[in-house]
Every structure is written in structure tokens, then in C-alpha cells.
């Protein structure tokens, strides 16, 4: 059983994960903008947090593709 099959059985749909992927892009941009407003001492940590969140979208999107494949194989 793959993660895509499991998520499909639980009720997660590809559109949910695609929306989460796009939301994480927005969160990354928001964190990056916020990093510019904090003090110099805290800026490095804030920028690293934004970069960490910036790694999420592609992973979440690919999990959504896995769920889409599970949908098509289940029919």
C-alpha cells in the first residue's frame, strides 16, 4: 500500500494537496518578508525558516500526484 492509496482511502483528494502546496508557497513568501522586518540577530533564523518552508511545495504536490494515480487505479 502506497501513501497515495492510503491518503485516498482516508478521503484526501489531489486538489487538497495542491492547495496546500500553493499555500506553502504563500507561507514561504510571508516568512521571507517577515524576515526582513526582524532584528539583524534574528534575521538568519527567520530566513532559514522561510527556506525550510520553501522546500515543502514540490513534495506536497508530488504526494498529490500519487493520490491522483491511486484514484485512477482504483476505478
Brief descriptors of the model:
single chain; 75 residues; 4 helices; 0% strand; rod-shaped
Describe the structure.
- By secondary structure, the protein is mainly alpha-helical.
- Helix content is 85%, strand content 0%.
- It contains 4 helices and no strands.
- The protein has helices spanning 3-10, 14-35, 40-54, 56-74.
- α1 packs across α4 (56-74).
- The model has no long low-confidence stretch (mean pLDDT 93).
Beta strand %: under 5%
**Radius of gyration, CA atoms, in whole angstroms:** 16 Å
Structural class by secondary-structure content: mainly alpha
What's the overall geometry?
rod-shaped
Number of E-type strands: 0
Q: Can you count the helices?
A: 4
Quick structural summary:
By secondary structure, the chain is mostly helical. It has helices spanning 3-10, 14-35, 40-54, 56-74. The chain is 85% helix and 0% strand.
Secondary-structure topology with pairs:
Blueprint: H1 3-10, H2 14-35, H3 40-54, H4 56-74
Amino acid at each position: 500500500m502506497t501513501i497515495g492509496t492510503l491518503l485516498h482511502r482516508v478521503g484526501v483528494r489531489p486538489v487538497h494537496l495542491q492547495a496546500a502546496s500553493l499555500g506553502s508557497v504563500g507561507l514561504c513568501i510571508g516568512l521571507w518578508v517577515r524576515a526582513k522586518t526582524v532584528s539583524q540577530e534574528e534575521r538568519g533564523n527567520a530566513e532559514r525558516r522561510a527556506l525550510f518552508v520553501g522546500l515543502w511545495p514540490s513534495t506536497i504536490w508530488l504526494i498529490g500526484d500519487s493520490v491522483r494515480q491511486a484514484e485512477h487505479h482504483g476505478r
